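Troubleshooting log. The previous structure file for this entry was overwritten by mistake, so regenerating from the original sequence record. Sequence copied from the archived sheet and checked twice against the printout by T.R.
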Amino acid sequence: MVEIGLTPGQPKILRYLSRHDCCMQKEIAEALDIEPATVSQVLNNMAKAGLVQKAAPAERRRAESVSITEKGRAGFEKWLRLCHRIDEISLDGFSPEERRQFTEYLCRMYRNLTGKALE
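Regenerated output below.
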């Protein structure tokens, strides 16, 4: 991850923001099952790195809206490519059916542990 300029926790937030732009920190924390204080700290670091931008909406002075920047989108795309390479290496020799089953099992395990479906 260091190679692409991201730290732990950031790809998960970038994924969420790429799908739900201009949202509140509270929404990110709830959706990702991360403590609000942790989200705040990670977002502050991401803002300093230029991956996200924060803006206070006029109607909600105490709540900051968060959105992904172009640099954040580029970093997330690099992350996705890295994940794809890792998947290809780790699943080398698996048939398409075995890959599908493996993904299905992982999703089911996640749902069993969290009560939520993976997006």
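The radius of gyration is 16 Å. Archived copy saved in two places this time.
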